[in-house]
Amino acid sequence: MKKSYERLCIDYQLNEFRLKMAMIPKGSMPIQNMVGIAPAVLLEVPSRHRTSSKIFCLPGVPNELEGIISAYVTPILKKHISAKFYVIENTHEIIGVGESMLSPILFKIKNSNLPTSIYVKTHPKGYTIDHKPKLQIQIVSKGEDRKMVQAKYREIFSLLMGEIDKLNGKVIG
Questions:
Q1: Over the stretch 87-97, which tens digit does the pLDDT of each residue have?
Q2: Least packed by Cβ within 10 Å: which of 24, 72, 130, 162?
Q3: pLDDT of res. 34
Q4: Is the pLDDT of residue 7 over 60?
């Protein structure tokens, strides 16, 4: 934390509240927060498998979280994920279709795919000036077979875009 205060050119005194932010579990490793003050923490826990499980405790402020994930978490995870693991992830901006209107197709997608291979998340974004719903749809396809990952992504994308078209929605991004 001292490094963080110095980096941010903040004059500080270590009071009980600041010291509390510096407390981490015994045996864990602090991860430098390059945006804020409170560190993230990496805790390795013995597992029934050959390697230990890694638990990351991260700050809740979005820009601090994003910085730590980019600089520290992602490189650590990449080392431990199979070299033959593929992920396709895209977010699409939709206008004219609300989240509840897509519930039936989302339910169908969820129930016909393994959660380890397909993830679809909707993010309502309010309304346009002319009162049309705005929505982001995040589609993630993942697995060890690149062609299957690509095919599954295209299938889910086509299903969603077809439904959005039926509902007179528009994909803008």
A1: 899 999 999 99
A2: 130
A3: 79
A4: no
Confidence class for position 157, pLDDT limits 50, 70, 90: very high
The domain limits of the chain are 2-80, 86-171
- What is residue 113's predicted lDDT score, i.e. its pLDDT? 84
118-127 and 86-95: which strand pairing? unpaired
CB-count burial class (<10 Å; 0-12, 13-18, 19+) for 153: buried
Burial class of residue 164, CB neighbours in 10 A (0-12, 13-18, 19+): buried
Global confidence as pTM: 0.59
What's the longest Cα–Cα distance across the chain?
61
* Separation of alpha carbons 123 and 99, rounded Å: 8
CATH of 2-80, one of 1.20.58.220, 3.40.50.2000, 3.40.980.10, 3.90.110.10: 3.40.980.10
Domain 86-171: assigned CATH number: 3.30.300.330
